[in-house]
Amino acid sequence: MKHIGLYGGSFDPVHRGHLAMAQAALNECQLDEIVFIPCQDPVYKEVKQKTCLASAADRYAMLALACKSNTALSISRCEIDRITPSFTLITLDEFLAQRPQTRFYFLLGLDTFSTLPTWYQWQGILERVNLILLPRELSKEEQTRMNAEPLASLLSERKISDLERFKAHQNGGIWQIQPPLSPYSSTCVREQVHLKSSWQNLVTAEVADYIESKHLYQETE
Prior knowledge:
221 residues; alpha/beta; 10 helices; single chain; Rossmann fold
């Protein structure tokens, strides 16, 4: 049986932090593959501008460049090509139907996990897959949500620290990747590009070349 992580997000743009967290999940949880799933339009992201700044085609192209040297990383177009909103539950059902003999793990940053109870039929996610939580620095509001119900009980009841036992679960288990925290964020990359500050080291060389050639993130958000 293959063990595959599913890593969703806007990836606007993909940066070294995304790649480091994917590699950490591969190594720590002994996964066979990580599939990046760029969304068409963020459904949950709490930002003033709900659409991504770069087009879906550009974000997919940057992911392809960032992942090309690592055979354990791949990209799915399932949400980009979907006409309806990119709800995670729908995406998981598609993967489970296509690969019924595979055990899937959904990767989430702790900041995103703090919003899980607001997601469409969020309990159904844990009925389908295991979760791998990625370290992120939390705001006071995000930490408050983590310490409140239902997330406090969810972590207490579902978090597993033994890898063999975690991977034996078909669904419902939670594994928390240990720090260090990633210092990178897509917002930081976009801001640095716009300010014409030093940003190229935040992404791979190929992604930096793509951003410059396409003149991405030049406008104010």
